[in-house]
Amino acid sequence: MAAIHQQQQHMPLLLLTFLLAASTAAARPSYVIKSTCVAITNATVGTPYRYCVRTLAADPAAAPARDARGLAIAAAKLTATNVSSTLHVLNLLVDALQNCIVTYQFMQGDVAGALDDLSAGRLDVASPKLKRASFQPDFCELAMMESDTDKDPVSEENDANQLLSGMAYNIAELIANRRPPPPR
């Protein structure tokens, strides 16, 4: 039960609002909601009518509103809750990205050391550094997964770095072990 509650905290508020609207038969928009949504849709380009009606009709604080002021208060409260949720997600992502920065700094050091070793002909010393580097993107990926945000802004970079560093390691290991490449 606690896991479900924790997952619900991370679910965006508006998604929950839409789910409530879909699951509640009594979530019928009032005249005030409909007329206010028509008015703002006609007066602005920023608020689609359907979005306005669905969001306000699903909000228990907006449904009984008697006028546009009551709807504005309800919409502002929804916004405040959504902003808080977004800030929470951003803080989790910042923490995860900080872990990724440290991980990639270690990787950068390993790759730079391996480059020096390869240039100097020390293949047996370069290979372990490249091997260590090839695992670093996984640690970043893990940090993103552990953030519980279901968002990963560096997924493509992690994939590319893992492939490149793995390839560099495999080539260095091939040379270090003096194995000839397999015939084609």
UniProtKB/TrEMBL annotation:
It comes from Triticum aestivum (Wheat). Belongs to the PMEI family. GO terms for biological process: plant-type cell wall modification. It holds the Pfam family PMEI. The lineage of its organism: Eukaryota, Viridiplantae, Streptophyta, Embryophyta, Tracheophyta. Keywords: Disulfide bond, Signal. Residues 33-169 form the Pectinesterase inhibitor domain. GO terms for cellular component: plant-type cell wall. This is Pectinesterase inhibitor domain-containing protein. One of its GO terms (molecular function) is enzyme inhibitor activity. It comes from the Eukaryota. Residues 1-27 form the signal peptide.
